[in-house]
Write a structure and sequence with these properties.
The protein is elongated and about 60 Å long. The chain has 3 helices and no strands. It has a single domain, classed as Chorismate mutase (Chorismate Mutase Domain, subunit A), CATH 1.20.59. The relative contact order is 0.10. It is mostly helical.
Length: about 100
């Protein structure tokens, strides 16, 4: 790689690092909301709502296409996020 391209690569990587830090803040906020949602659930079988998951993924696909983002990328990200939070809810569920 040329020195010029290496410099450009480093600049782009710094921009990605800044975005990653923003994601961390958003994940923190999302986690706090998920904790509140979990407190409302009385039974463990309320954790997974397949109908809602389908709606979310369908909406993300539409938004991705409208913004010219590869929907396979956003679908995979959202599926992973959804199932990560489902796991979080299962681990933190307390019977009332």
């Amino acid at each position: 790689m040329s020195p010029n391209n290496k410099k450009k690569l480093n600049i782009l990587r710094k921009k990605l690092d800044i975005l990653d830090n923003s994601f961390i803040s958003l994940i923190k906020k999302r986690t706090e909301i998920v904790k509140k949602v979990l407190k409302l659930k009385k039974h463990k079988n309320e954790i997974v709502d397949n109908k809602r998951i389908k709606i979310i993924l369908k909406n993300i696909k539409k938004k991705s296409i409208n913004k010219n983002i590869d929907p396979k990328i956003t679908n995979r990200i959202w599926k992973n996020m959804i199932w990560s939070y489902i796991d979080f809810e299962r681990r933190n569920f307390k019977k009332k």
